[in-house]
Amino acid sequence: MHSHYITKYFSIDNSIPTSPIEDILTNLKSILDYTKNLEEEEEGNDNKIIELNKIQEKIKTCENILRTQNLNEVPVCKYRKFEKVYNMWCLDQSEKKDEQNSFLSQHPNKKSVTSFFNMHSLLSTKFQDQYNDIYDWNADIELIYKRNVFISIGYKLLYPLGVLETNFNTEILKNFLLKIYSLYNDLPYHNSLHAAQVAHFSKSMLFMLDLNHKISGIDEFCLHVSSLCHDVGHPGLNNFFLIKSENELALTYNDSNVLENYHCSLVFKTLKDSSCNIFGNYPNNIFITCKKNIIRAILSTDMKNHFEYISTFRTNREFIDYDNLTNDQLWQIFCLILKASDIGHSTLEWKKHLEWTLKINEEFYLHQ
């Protein structure tokens, strides 16, 4: 990312202590400045040696930060600043690239996608006009992201959080998204587009509930993983049908949250592959907590437990301090966010709602 974006969009608030990632960005900006000075110096000039020494010193500083600092402790406000940097960079790239030349336009069949295309070239030319509405509940995500909505939203939501949390490998993120995407079946309703819409709704609700600046990056990261994966591998048949027909899945999961347990299983089987393990750089104790929270969120989408969740929250909501949420309270709210997002199309304008309703009706006819 060029220093232009760092200086223009990542202005450091001196009232807030800097984080390790900001120290690295500051050093990288200095390296860019020294490199520019180096290019202007004549060969053999003593100043050239001085500039080279400065560059080496800054590189060593970055290495020391990476070795000694805990990048997991990035303040929440820093995520939002970085998110803005990243979004603005995407906007700039979308102006320069013709989406007709993007990798995906050459591979309209999703099953033929074998490597990750350049996400930035996928962004619609209309993206900039709609940037202010990108997290609006009613935003038309198909219009904004065009062809591969799932990959685009997944990358947009997870990349800014992941890159600040750990020594993040973007190739692993790409592999993870492609793998999960490939596991979604071509169904009328429970497909990758539905998952992308639920992820979009979840992000939108964080803003509407004013939680966006109150939660940690790792918690938000897990929420987005849950929303993107909550229906992965869905066969187009509901739990009731699977249980009554004594389907293999129902036998495997003992008639309990059959599909939801199956979705969780696919997520963590995918993460077992080191090339797809987006939690690979986290300490084991943090990963165990993440796993527990993701499973909890996905299991909550079983409509059989819907009224139990609502009743429990109504009982507890008067005793919740929303400025000092415990982890359990936070994930109780996250589960409700995911549940609301899962059926969120019912709140869209009539045309869109009708479109999704016809899709679910079409899928019901698979129960034969």
From TrEMBL:
It comes from Plasmodium ovale curtisi. GO terms for molecular function: 3',5'-cyclic-nucleotide phosphodiesterase activity; metal ion binding. This is 3',5'-cyclic nucleotide phosphodiesterase, putative. The active site is at H190 (proton donor). Keywords: Hydrolase, Metal-binding. Zn(2+) 2 binds at D231. One of its GO terms (biological process) is signal transduction. Signal peptide: none annotated. PROSITE patterns: PDEASE_I_1, PDEASE_I_2. Zn(2+) 1 binds at H194, H230, D231, D342. CDD domains: HDc (cd00077). SMART domains: HDc. Residues 96-368 form the PDEase domain. InterPro entries: HD/PDEase_dom (IPR003607), PDEase (IPR023088), PDEase_catalytic_dom (IPR002073), PDEase_catalytic_dom_sf (IPR036971), PDEase_CS (IPR023174).
